[in-house]
Amino acid sequence: MKRGKPITLEEIKELSDKWFPIFNEVHSRLPEGATVEETLQVMESLSKLAGAEIAAKERDDSKFFYYRGPEVA
Q1: Is 1 helix (H, G, I), strand (E, B) or coil?
Q2: Would you state the pLDDT for residue 70?
Q3: Which has the least CB within 10 A, 8, 14, 56, 73?
Q4: Above 90 in pLDDT, residue 72?
Q5: What is the sign of the dihedral through the CA atoms of 28, 30, 32 and 38?
Q6: pLDDT for 19-70, tens place per residue?
Q7: Beta carbons of 22 and 43 less than 8 angstroms apart
Q8: With b meaning 16 or more CB within 10 Å and e meaning fewer, what string describes 15-32?
Q9: Which of 41, 39, 43, 44 is nearest to 27 (CA)?
Q10: 2, pLDDT greater than 90
């Protein structure tokens, strides 16, 4: 995908192949009757949680390479 150019049908298909399995997995774990909007809200929360966990892991991994001082919470 190039910036400033319209997305192609092929690119939509590739992105859909990545996105819909994630959506379906999250939706299948929600209570019966959950709406698409509720599923998207849960996906957003999971994305934020994943970002925080990745950042924490990277922070922990970097401690092996150099000392950054005590962590301030």
Answers
A1: coil
A2: 79
A3: 73
A4: no
A5: negative
A6: 999 999 999 999 999 999 999 999 999 999 999 999 988 887 776 656 667 7
A7: yes
A8: eeeeeeeeeeebbeeeee
A9: 39
A10: no
Both tokens of residue 54? 């990745």
- Nearest-CA neighbor of 71 among 52, 60, 57, 48? 60
| Owner of token pair 């319209």 | 6
Cα of 59 vs its chain's centroid, Å: 19
Q: What is the DSSP string of 2-69?
A: -TTSPPPHHHHHHHHHHHHHHHHHHHHHSPTT--HHHHHHHHHHHHHHHHHHHHHHHHHHHTTT----
